[in-house]
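Sanity check

After download, print the first record. It should look like this:
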Amino acid sequence: MTCKGDKMADTKKYYWLKLKRDFFKRHDVAVIESMQNGDKYLLFYMKLLVESIDHEGALRFSDTVPYNDTMLAAITRTDIDIVRSAVKVFQEFGMMDILDDGTLFMKQVETMIGNETEWASKKRLYREKQRQIDTKEGQKRTLSDKSKRLEIELDKEIEKEIEYTPDKPAKSQKHKHGEYKHVLLTSDEYLRLCEEWGEPELLRMIKELDEGIEMKGYKYKNHNLALRRWKSNEKNQRNGYSKPLPVQTRTAFLDMEG
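Expected structure tokens:
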């Protein structure tokens, strides 16, 4: 996968946010709603979710400038005191992380978004599976009538708006990266990091994380977030802002990302 000339990077994508029917029955949401200005907190939260869906949950004003309270108030048309109080509440309830470089990370976005490339990916995986069968058997296969019908149905699903069931939130297909294939990133995550850091730097960071998982057994639930934190910590160490993180701290990210 490359940053420039990647066909996926030029393809128009449509994103949507899916809420389960019991969203407002969740304990954290119910508690926040019962607070003074709780309804305003939740409206602000929804605006942040929508703003972050095409960046895999990450929110920044630009590659070099993170959002501050004043900016968040302006783009969401929310009172700045509400913004300040709500951000603290979201952090306490594990709904938002603020990374070392100032990036806001909406932790639950990955389980709440869908996009049309989900079904395009299903079609590609299906065709790849058929090609693998052909290679393994050492001969060209002709798709059966059933297979042909399935392929036609997949084509139609890509061209129309797909309805996802509330009980099964859409998840982006993750691809393996690195020599040992330990680093898992969606296409959108890879392209976003590629745009921010450049592909050579991204490949270097993937190599470090991949080797760390292979040799030292690091464990992360979200490799996109892990790469960002490694990058942020590396930058701070070079600038003398912090000491290198011990292995125990890195492995502890598993619990933080849960």
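If your output differs, re-run the checksum step. Summary of this record's structure: The longest helix spans residues 117-137.
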